[in-house]
Write a structure and sequence with these properties.
By secondary structure, the protein is α/β, with parallel strands linked by helices. The protein folds into 2 domains: 142 residues, ATPase, nucleotide binding domain (Nucleotidyltransferase, domain 5, 2-Layer Sandwich), CATH 3.30.420.40; 171 residues, Nucleotidyltransferase, domain 5. 43% of the residues lie in helices and 18% in strands. 54% of the residues are buried. Its EC number is 2.3.1.234. It holds the Pfam family TsaD.
Amino acid sequence: MAERGEALVLGFETSCDETGVGLVRGHTLLADALATSMAEHERFGGVVPEIASRAHLEAMVPTVHRALADAGATIDDVDAIAVTSGPGLTGALLVGVAAAKAYALALSKPLYGVNHLAAHVAVDELQHGPLAEPSIALLVSGGHSSLLLVPDLAQEVQSLGRTVDDAAGEAFDKVARVLGLPFPGGPPIDRAAQEGDPTAIGFPRGLTGPRDAPYDFSFSGLKTAVARWIEARQRAGEEVPVADVAASFQEAVADVLTAKAVRACRDHGVDHLVLGGGVAANSRLRALAEERCAAAGIVLRVPSPRLCTDNGAMVAALGSRLVAAGVAPSSPDLGADSSLPIETVSR
């Protein structure tokens, strides 16, 4: 439980299409309010930045009020404010940063601009307590596939590898589209795969050769291979086995992600792995990570599916960690940085 002396941190997340507002005291989650514009993007098959930014503007204040009500708190109870300042969609980030700066100025409270990826790691502390340091973090989402070494979450995060083309979540969306499944593609592919055979089709595993970068990811070739396989079946007038394609594709993604994460743990002598990001909600990825970590003697920490996707709780969690570590707040001229490097935990 949280100690009364710990700071109450209000967190804002607007890096993509979710407007997230969280309240955290210490490692205790008090509120996690979320508004999404996903339905408005569905017909475009992907997130439209201008629509996302407008939706954040409309949802921001009501979502703050809902979070405060859920926590049984008032805005005057807040001790510090944290906001995602990057990476993400520039227009969407600017809405969150502007809102956080306005609240910080009105309340005369310290403001912390934080890194979206580091926040995905920090959110695990709300469920499993203080992070073992060092840890390896595997973050997998629609915009990112990253392997990180985390010696000190408040001060130092190092990039070991990342996607060189399509992120895993992006590949899920594109494969779902060619299979005729809804957007976003992760959940429908996961559901379809439950009825399929993951060994039915031998889809390629990108960047797994002996000369390839050991911790980088590539899913563009896999996505293309799936599309071509489907096209060949359709040209031959044969039915496409959706469940088998979904299961085989999902297996290829999970295989590469977990193999590289376990390798990173072994290479760096780290025995704790944190799995985060929206794709971490995928049932096969979670199961294979558990299996391989158990075999390698690695402790696996995975937040609940709700906390894996973008949310305000993760930003508040990182803000709480920064406050506790005595990290200096951001300057009043804090801006948004769409390509903020992971090495910059706070700005």
